[in-house]
Specification:
The structure holds two protein chains of two kinds.
Chain A: H1 2-5, E1 9-10, H2 17-32, E2 36-40, H3 45-55, E3 61-65, H4 76-82, E4 87-94, E5 100-101, H5 108-113, E6 118-123, E7 141-145, E8 161-165, H6 168-171, E9 177-183, E10 190-197, H7 217-254, E11 259-260, E12 267-268, E13 271-276, H8 281-290, E14 297-298, E15 309-313, H9 320-336
Parallel strand pairs in A: 2-3, 2-4, 4-6, 6-7
Antiparallel strand pairs in A: 1-8, 5-12, 7-8, 9-10, 11-13, 13-15, 14-15
Chain B: H1 8-16, H2 30-39, H3 70-81, H4 105-111, H5 114-117, H6 129-146, H7 158-173, H8 186-196, H9 218-221
The chains are: A alpha/beta, B mainly alpha.
């Protein structure tokens, strides 16, 4: 995982992606001594909710950076006005919650560093088959949800939290466990041990970096097996398959009258937002379900700026036929409402 | 797409990997294959099959569709399987040998334990105390149920048990005639014939004679 992300250290996992964000934010606050965290306004509402649980009790304030209405990327003007020398870190995602690949993403860590702030980047593990790892563009902490490389959807859990960082000072702040490789006393055989476990069961409670240091050992092993099996070639192929299918889906849906697809002008990976010009997104989903199709996540209530909209997802599991079927059904539904 | 985000170094590392070789399956790499063949002094993989007469070997490619990935194979097989209509979806009145009974969840949970599931035959019987005890319990319960003095620790299936029983009877009586009901399940009859008829051929000590599964009816009882 360190290899993939370009991080120096990755721990042996956390609960899930959201909990990894919370821990990353607290690491940044502890190591910079600052209490302000910038996050994209496009952050998944569930993740935001977990992040608040992690940050508010310890006096960390969350400020949301708006997204560009055209591209869905971070609004650079808004970011400039909020990123200052009181900022502990900027957290952002590649791809974003809207599925967009922000061309500025690789430049943001240096922008943060110029203010003494850290950059926390959330990545999609499979996307690193084709995209640079956060460490390759100087991110300080990398986090991810690792469900996609370790287990099926399973009604939403269990999940796999991935967290890694660069630099000696941050390593000391890393919650959870780090397994290290060493040698036996006689120096002859390789041996493994827990080299860092800054958890409250092992050290003084007030010195613990976190009280939630549980790791997801089984899924972490699953992820190791998954990535080893695919190898760099397989992972790249998978990335390209998903990218191509995403583009195909956007192309098909762009031909559906009454639909704006994609809603933003950007590059996309795996997910994209569609806008419904005359229909309610929740009603469209209800109709799709009655036709035997699960629609995307309805965004209208949580992102009213976007109007009636949904976030659609396409993976290697989505067949071309099912994309065609979705587009045909949407034509019928949007033509009829 | 945004080139800043594309990993150029990853591109390079991908180039080094042969598409058809697998990093964790050594014999998928051509150079490792060659080394393995050299080590055993064989020129080619084909040579390993040279002692199989060519007339019994399949010379044409197997009629299996070409797939690019595990995912494609699974999709294909699932499409085939989806043509099945399982007893969970539709009622069934089919029995005749295999029966639709409820098996309590605890049975599956216990037989799924690796100590049991991976134990075929306890080659080091004395260190497999748990397995031995479980089989002992099986024998005792069945003996109790059936009123037999001895029950063994199981055979393949019911039909094979009939075959073995018939041969036991023949060996112990020295007689070669077995009576069976005409209404025997044709599948069981077929297995029974496999067990009994070959005993006709004197393969070893010459006196071995046919063990006819003979009743007046059975020779005509199969469909």
């Amino acid at each position: 995982m360190a290899d993939l992300t370009g991080m120096e250290v990755v721990n042996s996992s956390l609960y899930d992606g959201s909990n990894a964000i919370g821990e990353a934010v607290r690491m940044a606050a502890r190591s910079t001594g600052r209490r302000k965290i910038l996050i994209p306004k496009s952050l998944h509402p569930d993740r935001l909710s977990v992040l608040r649980n992690y940050s508010e009790p310890s006096g960390i304030s969350i400020e949301r950076v708006d997204y560009d209405k055209e591209t869905g990327s971070l609004d650079m003007g808004d970011l400039e006005s909020k990123l200052d020398n009181a900022t502990a870190a900027l957290y952002y995602e590649v791809p974003s919650f809207f599925g967009t690949l922000d061309p500025e993403a690789t430049r943001l860590p240096d922008k943060c560093h110029s203010q003494g702030a850290l950059a926390i980047v959330a990545f999609d593990p499979i996307s690193l088959g084709g995209l640079k790892g956060p460490g390759d563009y100087n991110a300080d902490i990398a986090v991810a949800e690792g469900q996609s490389i370790s287990t099926e959807m399973n009604y939403g859990g269990p999940l796999l939290g991935i967290i890694g960082c660069r630099g000696e000072t941050l390593v000391r702040q890393l919650p959870g466990r780090i397994i290290g490789k060493t040698t036996t006393l006689d120096g002859k055989s390789p041996a493994y041990s827990m080299v860092l476990q800054t958890r409250e069961q092992h050290i003084r409670r007030e010195r613990a970096t976190s009280n939630i240091c549980t790791n997801e050992a089984l899924l972490a092993i699953g992820a190791a097996v998954y990535l080893s099996l695919l190898g760099p070639h397989g992972l790249k192929q998978l990335f390209e398959t998903i990218k191509t299918k995403t583009e195909y889906a956007m192309m098909k849906l762009s031909q559906v009258p009454g639909l704006t697809a994609p809603r933003f002008k950007s590059h996309f990976y795996q997910e994209f937002v569609v806008g419904f010009n005359r229909s309610k997104a929740s009603e469209v989903n209800r109709r799709l379900l009655s036709e035997g199709i699960h629609g995307g996540k309805v965004l209208s209530a949580e992102f009213p700026d976007l109007g009636e909209s949904s976030l659609l997802c396409v993976t290697e599991m989505t067949s071309q036929e099912s994309i065609d079927q979705l587009s045909e059904k949407l034509k019928e539904i949007l033509g009829g409402i | 797409m945004s080139t800043q985000l594309l990993g150029a170094e990853k591109e390079a590392s991908v180039q080094k990997v042969n598409k058809n070789s697998h990093p964790f399956i050594p014999n998928t790499s051509e150079s490792i294959r060659r080394k393995m063949l050299e080590a055993i002094g064989v020129g080619s993989i084909e040579e390993l099959y040279s002692d199989i007469p060519s007339e019994v070997r399949v010379s044409h490619p197997l009629k299996i569709p070409a797939f690019n990935s595990e995912q494609e194979v699974l999709t294909h097989i699932e499409a085939l399987l989806s043509q099945n209509q399982s007893t969970k979806e539709i009622p069934t009145f089919l029995g005749a040998g295999i029966y639709n009974h409820y098996v309590p969840a605890a049975v599956k949970a216990i037989v799924s334990r690796v100590e049991f599931q991976t134990a075929y035959t306890p080659y080091q019987a004395e260190i497999s105390q748990g397995l031995l005890q479980a089989l002992f319990e099986f024998q005792s319960i069945i003996a109790d149920l059936t009123g037999m003095e001895v029950v063994n620790s199981s055979l393949y299936d019911g039909s094979n048990a009939i075959g073995e029983a018939v041969r036991m009877a023949a060996r112990s009586t020295g007689r070669r005639k077995i009576l069976i009901p005409k209404c025997l399940h044709p599948d069981r009859l077929s297995v029974l014939r496999n067990y009994s008829e070959p005993a006709r051929r004197p393969t070893r000590p010459t006196k071995q004679r046919s063990l006819r599964a003979s009743c007046k009816h059975c020779s005509s009882s199969s469909q």
